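Hi U.,

Before I forget, here's the chain from the pilot set. I'm dumping it here mostly so it's searchable later in email.
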Amino acid sequence: MAALRLLLLLLTAGGASGGPQPDCSYLGLLKHLQLDSASHHLTVTRPVQNWTRPTYVWVDMLLYSILQVDEKVQTVTSHIWRYMTWTGEFLSWNSTEFCGIPYVIVPASSVWIPDVSILEDVSDTGSTYRSPVVKLYSNGFMSTYSRQRLTTTCHLKLRLFPFDTQRCNITFLSMSSGEDAVHMGAFNNGSALTKFSEQVMVTQGEWQLRKMEIVHDRLRTGETPLSEVVYMVTVVRKPMLYVINLIVPLFALLLLDVASFFIHEARGEKLSFKVTVLLSISVLLLILKDMLPSTEDQLPMIANYCVAIFGFVGFSVLEAILVSHLIDLDGYFGRKAQRSAQKQKQQEAGGPKAAAGEEKAQVKPDQSLLPLNPSSSRDLLQQILEAVTSLRKEADRRIREQGDGSYRRVAEIIDTVFFSLYFIGIVVFLSYMYSVWIYYVFQ
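Structure:
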């Protein structure tokens, strides 16, 4: 009896070992999926069992770096990673029949891949790297990735430059398939992708990633709308470099121009100093010109700031020219009056002397016959002294009338009034700029 049981046990073991064994090789799995040879129906058509059912394509984007933002051309250059997943209904298997194989790597040329493109893309084709393989899971889920040096168009709003925040869209859609065939979406939400991007980001330059938002939309280009997924990328500029290199120097030049009002006009250095300040501001304006676009509807606040400072200093230079001219005019008339008074004084002082000489010459023969009269000589000298004194007073009066510093007093009044208005205008302008900036920031 024991021998019979042993014989039955051996026969059972032999029958079990002689049955079909599960195929644990990738080759067997590829043969099962018909991917071991060229299967054109798997590469040219959507892998759906019912053509009325759309294929859902999920696109996740990671922002790896922000390379450049060109304000004049209105483009943004970045480095992105794109993960794309979809479902192939004919490419699934029971993993228990293949020793639990969860996924398999297949060439990208052997399966259908959605033709997803970026609507705002203006970069060349050589900047894109697409993975040559596709990862295929047992439930038919397929995924692939690509990375790209992406240049996209973006309408940059530079009103608050360099304290601006830019929002640029990156739109993924299938240009050849409508939403009834390909439906776009994102596998992860915007906050998760923002967090992943911050972790893997290598460089940001002068920009900092704030957030990424995902919006599902429809693009109507014909009878059938296109499904699209829009990534709204929000970046913030780091303004410290522009503050140090542009805003602070302009404000310092404005303060120097205000301080130049305390330079004495007689030295002749005030006007040259103001002209030097004006030329320095012109150089900074040339630097700003290379940064900002010429197609902006509204001038950026920093452009208004620079133009206003240039206008303040320009009016200050004109005022310095006027004051300098009035002071020179006062000196010119003063010297002219003094020269004319001296000339007239010499002429009038020389006339009595000549007349006295002639009279002396006329009476000289008689004086030899008549005795000398001392009282008449004293009277004559007294008359000559009174005449010279009256001439000197008249000359001093004319100098006071024509060169008495009236132009200089007018110049001092103009300088004082202009300095008061100039200082008040600067304070009002800076207050206005600050209030406008606060309004736009918290709008």
